[in-house]
Amino acid sequence: MKNINSRTTEYPIDDIFLKRYSPRAMSGEGFSREEFMTIFEAGRWAPSSNNSQPWRFLYATIGTPNFEKFLSFVVDKNQIWCKKAGVLVIVLSKNNLENGTLSIPHSFDTGAAWENIALQSTQIGFIAHAMGGFYRDVVKKELSIPDDYTVEIMIAIGKPGKIEDLPEALHEREKPNDRKKLEEIVFEGNLPK
Fold first, then answer.
1. Is residue 77 in a domain?
2. The CATH number of the domain where 45 resides is what?
């Protein structure tokens, strides 16, 4: 068992899983292309069904017109904190395989790519916070996303900032949360009745 960030495991795992969480306090600093491409490189190496690699990442860096456009896609309560991200990312998944047939696990595979991004960001001392609070229909329209793509999530990636710079209502949420016990999520054979 390990205890990191006030999180305790039931079995031994690598520290990175306990270090990763989704804070909102970001500094507003930009970072180099090499730094954020390193994060995307980790996403690129996620496993995928038929090696289809359905994920696509659209990004905008702070201080650019694209950043303001991407920020406008975000609901107000998330704009409050993600306006200080160094990069905003829209994550898409391609619904079909190269042969045109439906890829059943495209969203699942893209989730694996997001996890790689989250872990790599944590590994190099950055924050990666995925959010569902944005206007998918507006993204699809404004960015002319083809119908064979699903708009999955947005991610705010940034350097750590000060909790005090967030609205007070968010201060309590700036700590790692716990997880359900294994006995609540892992079952041999079938779900309990």
1. yes
2. 3.40.109.10
| 21-74 pLDDT per residue, tens | 888 889 999 999 999 999 999 999 999 999 999 999 999 999 999 999 999 999
For residue range 76-126, what is the model confidence (pLDDT) as tens digits? 999 999 999 999 999 999 999 999 999 999 999 999 999 999 999 999 999
Please tell me the distance from the alpha carbon of residue 113 to that of residue 120, in angstroms, as a whole number: 11
The angle, 0 to 180 degrees and rounded to 10, between the axes of the packed helices 33-44 and 106-123 is 140
Nearest residue to 82 via CA among 141, 23, 41, 34 = 23
Pairing label, strands 149-158, 127-131: antiparallel
Question: Are the beta carbons of 166 and 86 closer than 8 angstroms?
Answer: no
